[in-house]
Amino acid sequence: MKDVHPEQSKVLLACYCFMTGFIDAISFKAIYVWCGFQTGNAVQLALAIARPFQGDHTFYTPDRQALTSLLTFIFGALLARTGDRVGAKTRAWFFAGTFVQALFTMAAAICIWKSGQGGVASDRGSPAWTTPLTYAALGFMSASLGLQGGMAKRLNTQFAATLVITTMWCELMADPKLHHIRKWVSSRDHKLATIGALLLGGFMGAISVEAMGPAGTLGLGTGLRGLIAIGWLFIPDEKKKKYPRPGFHSLHLRPEEMAALDKETIWSAKIT
């Protein structure tokens, strides 16, 4: 199986960033939990663990939702290791993995639709999702982003961090060519594209929730991920670099030049 070309995958990786913002907007508007940014969820769980020492032994609904998101995100990231069996950078894996993300998103849409609950919380203390079906939807959404992040990381490009935008902001501000605004700087401009795609996804997700509800928005996300999966089929192959075999011929000298070399030089060339 052939690997996809990392540099030719930038558009689809930017679409991954878009989907991060799109999915996160849905969960945050409903329960104030990020499906793709697990730093906040981990800190929230740390606060919940510390609460009994203050005399409060209640495990609140937001804490349970944060735990659900964290565990299922880890499951999705571990699922991304499946690609190691077929090739983590192969076209077949990126198509299949993105298709699985679409299936997770579709499952989340069905769960929200069957739950009958809304998609906008009145405040942090009153989340819109409280039933078991909505917990399942949250799990599917988080698993889809965990799988997405694990897959994107293997390509090792500027777009690899489709989830960790805090790090992206730090790297952008530390870029030595940040202020070179009159010319293209790939290390800087790719980071800007990553952040911009995520912001656009969050904006579109929020607008869609208001217009068609969380179930319809997740249905739209399913279609978008299906298109991204198809897009991987058209990414060019990565061309493997061919290096000359080490030895006598790697000197690239004419016969008369070779005759002028001493034996020690020739034998050292053979060894290397």
Automatic annotation (TrEMBL):
Annotated keywords: Membrane, Transmembrane, Transmembrane helix
Keyword Chaperone in annotation: no
Pfam families listed in its UniProt record: DUF1275 (PF06912)
Domain of life: Eukaryota
Residues passing through the membrane, by range: 12-34, 64-80, 92-116, 128-147, 192-209, 215-235
Protein name (Swiss-Prot/TrEMBL): DUF1275 domain protein
Species of origin: Heliocybe sulcata
